[in-house]
Amino acid sequence: MSSTFTDHQLDIVETGMKSEGIPGVAIAIVTGGEIVAAEGFGYRDLNQRLPMTPQTVTPICSLTKSMTGTAILQLVEQGRLSLDEPIQTYLPDLVISDLQTTRKITPRVLLSHKSGMGRTGHQPPMWRETVSPYRDRADLVSRLANIELQTPPNTAWSYCNEGFVTLGRLVETVSDIPLEEYFETRIFQPVGMDDTLTNFDGWRASADRAHLYERGDDDPAEAFLPANYGIYLSTGGVSSTALNLANYQIASMNYSDSPLLGAGSLEQMQSISMPFGDTGMGYGMGWQIRWVGSRKVVSHGGGLAGVATHSLMVPSAGIGVVVLTNLGGANVSLLAEQLAATVLDEQIFVSDPRNAPPINTRYVVPEGSLSLYPGVYKSDEATIEITGNDRGISVLRSVPEGGAEEANLIGIGDNLFMADEGVRSRGTLVYFVRNSDGYVTSLLTGGNQHWRS
Questions:
Q1: pLDDT value at 373 more than 60
Q2: Can you spell out the DSSP letters for 213-247?
Q3: For the chain, which terminus, N or C, has the lower number of CB atoms within 10 Å?
Q4: Residue environment code for 128-160, b if the CB has 16+ CB neighbours within 10 A, otherwise e
Q5: How far apart are CA 376 and CA 396, in angstroms?
Q6: What is the DSSP letter of 316?
Q7: How is the chain split among helix, strand and coil, in percent rounded to 5?
Q8: What are the backbone angles phi and psi of residue 190, rounded to the nearest 5°?
């Protein structure tokens, strides 16, 4: 393995860190089943000026979701689970919203974020309370009986962390192995992920670990994560290193002899299960998927307070890039794509999203329907204003802390739109929920529901 990046790659990293104000970043690049470059840049600890390294342990956030998907598919391969059997078959006490709805919730549905639950409101107390409000995963899952679904299952894509908590509970129930032990023995050890941990205490105790930062008025301010995030382990509680995740990428692209799964299972995880209209984009099972010409790009991002991560693979070319940063909200997906472009001869990545090509769709919004959507939509997270323009409709999203993001929306399916511009907004989905009379009552974006005022 060469630890040295090319001059061009170093320029990309330096530019990305400077534009985003990133204190430290660890990056690994995979080509042809090998780690061809791995290096740390900047600082894992600003106060002590300790350098970031490829071995720096960092919370990986939602990069964990593909590991939960891997665990589910392992149990499917063993004949102990079916992707399309109601989860209630395996968890008899499970109720999600109501009994009729519960029978429609399967492992495939939860893995693809199409359960209709979205952001259920159970996660924010984990950030505010010093002691977890939930006894264990079973306790949290039992509280899903009281939620009101955003949409019926299989109607719309809406990001749901509690769905992945339910999957974690399913793994440990069916396997009869604690989820922490399952991850360690069935996923980490076979791949050689020796520095990968299942709790934040382990990350905090690591000698080479990332301190986490949020943007401040002047300098980045150190951020803190909950003492105990184990209940949400299966959705985003793993901590790892760039080198370990590069090994995980290699195993995930090894269709001939992976220590994790057979080729058919890897293909299922890395295929679109919930399409985003007709764009060639969608969500698989713990991975986001998009097609660019004949190439399939498999990726996922992650974020918690003080950390932003991204994992990107082009399986047909055997190329992978892992980026771990210690700055909350950093735009690391662009950095990953720019680095991937340096090792792929084809121009499938957009180096400058401000000059990106239009969204690939043939969908035609029904004449006259655009007038249904403009209005003001509110939630605890944000106020969103939808306005008309000469291209269709646009969204102006203002957050409680101040500031706003504006983007044009392109229709890609019935009541479904995608932002086609903006460095951060491009690709964002907006789904409008209509009642039985056809009136738009709310919109969904990022898993949150915003009600029309």
A1: yes
A2: EE--SSSPEE----S--GGGHHHH--EE-HHHHHH
A3: C
A4: eeeebebeebbebbbebeebebbbebbbbbbbb
A5: 10
A6: G
A7: 30, 25, 45
A8: -60, -25
Spatial CA neighbour of 192 closest among 115, 232, 245, 235: 245
> What is the predicted pLDDT for the residue at 1?
43
**Closest-CA residue to 64 (of 190, 176, 231, 211):** 231
Are 426 and 350 spatial neighbours (Cβ–Cβ below 8 Å)?
no
pLDDT at 48 over 80: yes
CA–CA separation, 161 vs 165, rounded Å?
6
Residue-level pLDDT at 193: 98
Task: Write down the pLDDT at residue 390.
Answer: 66
> Alpha helix locations (H) across 258-372?
263-269, 332-341
Candidates 197, 182, 222; CA nearest to 23 is 222
Are the C-beta atoms of 431 and 158 separated by less than 8 Å? yes
Band of pLDDT at residue 403, cut at 50, 70 and 90: low
Q: Which residues pair with 409 in a beta bridge?
A: 393, 419
Cβ atoms 12, 211 nearer than 8 A: no
* Helix 332-341 / helix 7-20 crossing angle, nearest 10 deg: 170
- Identify which of 113, 112, 119 has the alpha carbon closest to the alpha carbon of residue 147: 119
Give the range among 139-148, 195-204, 253-262, 397-406 with minimum mean pLDDT: 397-406
Buried b (16+ CB within 10 A) or exposed e, 179-199: bbebbbebbbeebebebbbbb
Answer whether residue 159 shows pLDDT above 90. Answer: yes
Domains present along the chain, CATH in parentheses: 1-351 (3.40.710.10), 369-452 (2.40.128.50)
Q: How far is 202 from 240, CA to CA, in rounded Å? A: 10
Instruction: Considering only residues 345 and 207, tell me which one the structure prediction assigns the higher pLDDT.
Output: 207
What residue spans of 276-379 are helical by DSSP H?
332-341
Question: CA–CA separation, 73 vs 262, rounded Å?
Answer: 9
**pTM recorded for the entire structure:** 0.95
Q: Are 299 and 335 in contact (CB under 8 A)?
A: no
User: What is the rounded CA–CA span in Å between residue 340 and residue 278?
Assistant: 25
Q: Are 169 and 141 in contact (CB under 8 A)?
A: yes
What is the identity of the amino acid at 365? V
Coil/strand/helix, residue 432: strand
* Nearest partner of 431 among 104, 446, 368, 423, judged by Cα: 446
